[in-house]
Amino acid sequence: MENKSINLEKEFQARIDRGENIEAKDWMPEKYRKTHIRQISQHAHSEVVGMLPEGNWISRAPSLRRKVALLAKVQDEAGHGLYLYSAAETLGISRDELVEQLLEGTAKYSSIFNYPTLTWADMGAVGWLVDGAAIINQVMLTKTSYGPYARAMVRICKEESFHQRQGYEIMLALANGTDAQKQMAQDALNRFWWPSLMMFGPRDEDSPNTEQSMKWKIKKKTNDELRQQFVDQTVPQADILGLTIPDPDLKWNDENGGYDFGEIDWDEFWDVVKGNGPCNRKRMEDRNNAWDNGAWVREAALAHARKQAEQKISKTA
Amino acid sequence: MNKDWPIWEIFIRSKNGLDHRHAGSLHAADAEMAIQNARDVYTRRQEGVSVWVVESKHITASNPEKSGELFEPAKDKVYRHPTFYNLPDELKHM
Q1: Cα–chain-centroid distance for residue A69?
Q2: Radius of gyration (C-alpha) of chain A in whole angstroms
Q3: Is B47 within a domain?
Q4: Is A27 an 8 Å CB contact of chain B?
Q5: Chain B nearest C-alpha distance from A74 (Å)
Q6: For the residues of A100-111, what is the DSSP string, one character each?
Q7: Does residue B51 belong to the interface with chain A, where contact is any CB pair within 8 Å?
Q8: What distance in Å separates the CA atoms of residue A178 and residue A176, rounded to the nearest whole number?
Q9: How far, in Å, are A34, A38, A61, A142 from residue A89 at the CA level?
């Protein structure tokens, strides 16, 4: 019995090493399944909670053009959450169980959404930086070993690029506007820069899961590699805006062909992860209210569907 | 009583003349709602002109453990492909 499971694990690893995708009904180690349920559902929860800080500004967007774009972006996030929940469900857990884990606080979502969106410029900074960081991670995940997750990522990446462009356009307009508007853009960059770098997770040496995740090709790059990629591509974008990245240690390193940057405040990072960020409680309260207040709609739809089905049967009888 | 909406598989035809292809899945109380939701989730950027929905529980899938016996027999039947046959280069229209 034990031999059989060792052989299965070896064959599984060999498939991964050959670059094969794993599909829902294939044999997989229990830990691979559990890691994926955790990671995919966290990702899904992030999409759903991520609607809150942006939803905050839909009614106050400065023009109809900005409003329809923001509305479309938030709608996309809902769709992305759905793709991801569906991918997680292929691993044998129901969406309601996943949602319950979020609402009870036993499942995590990206800490970035525990920061407030105080001004309209934050919609620019979120699109530019937060979506920018997310895209780097998601592009990598289009090549992840679990088929349903990889396919969801392909779809998400296709839709996500407009998100970043609309954010950057907001920043561009503000940065080229009045002094007050430019100041507002700079302030948004100041507040979102460090939390965006934190989105890539702890340093490699503090990330115990990285090794196994790389072996199973869940991740193809480490947290620090992805973070470096983000910094290198974002600094020139800030230059075009004429804004200053709030890091006195940021400078080009010719030898490495990339930017050196300052140390992240890891105490803040862990504090927000543990639930003490500026908006953790508010976000959970809002999600719980949305779920509770929507209960009657879900029940009514189901009751309606049952009634329709019964009527169909009695008509054909 | 189960309060979860059932799960549906969604198939989209991107334009007339092409097959419906599997796009993904979603939850809905009934078929009509599944079509509505599929419209919102999978065709927001003109990806489709027609939608099929089928409740996932009605799909029977082949067992991956049996894929050897199901699919391997085709492997050694190269004579089913046109390139198997040796014909002179000057032969045209074939």
Answers
A1: 19
A2: 22
A3: yes
A4: yes
A5: 12
A6: HHHHHT-S---G
A7: no
A8: 7
A9: 12, 11, 36, 18
B77 falls within a domain: no
pLDDT tier for residue A316 given thresholds of 50, 70 and 90:
confident
Q: Average of pLDDT values for A250-267?
A: 97
Q: Structural domain of residue B46, as residue ranges?
A: 7-61
Mean pLDDT in residue range A252-266: 97
Q: What percentage of chain A has pLDDT greater than the value 90?
A: 92
Q: What six digits make up the tokens of A5?
A: 């499971």
Which of the 8 DSSP states describes residue A302? Answer: H
A26 touches chain B (CB under 8 A): yes
Contact B4 A309 (CB under 8 A): no
Neighboring chain A residues of B45 at a CB cutoff of 8 Å: 159
Is the model's pLDDT at B81 over the cut of 70?
A: yes
Q: How far apart are CA B61 and CA A27, in angstroms?
A: 15
- Residue B42 belongs to a domain with what CATH number? 3.10.20.520
Within an 8 Å CB–CB cutoff, is residue B70 touching chain A?
A: no
Structurally, chain B folds into a number of domains equal to: 1
Among B33, B41, B61, the residue with its CB nearest the CB of A25 is B61
Instruction: From chain A, pick out residues whose CB is under 8 angstroms from the CB of B4.
Output: 94-96
Identify the bridge partners of residue B13 per DSSP, sorted by sequence position.
Answer: B20, B50
Query: Residue B4: what pLDDT?
Result: 84
Provide φ and ψ at B12, rounded to 5°. Answer: -125, 135
> In Å, how far is B82's CA from the nearest CA of chain A?
28
- Residue B22 to chain A, least CA–CA distance (Å): 11
Kindly state the tokens that stand for B35.
């079509």
Task: Say which residue the tokens 């990671």 belong to.
Answer: A39
Helix axes A30-49, A95-104, angle to 10 degrees: 70
Residue B18 lies in a domain: yes
Q: What integer is the mean pLDDT of B41-70?
A: 94
Neighbours of A288 (CB within 10 A): 14
The mean per-residue pLDDT over the stretch A273-301 comes to: 96
Token pair of A169, please? Answer: 């356009």
How distant is the Cα of A9 from the closest Cα of chain B, in angstroms?
15
Tell whether B38 is covered by a domain: yes
Contact A302 B26 (CB under 8 A): no
Closest CA to B55 of B39, B32, B88, B75: B32
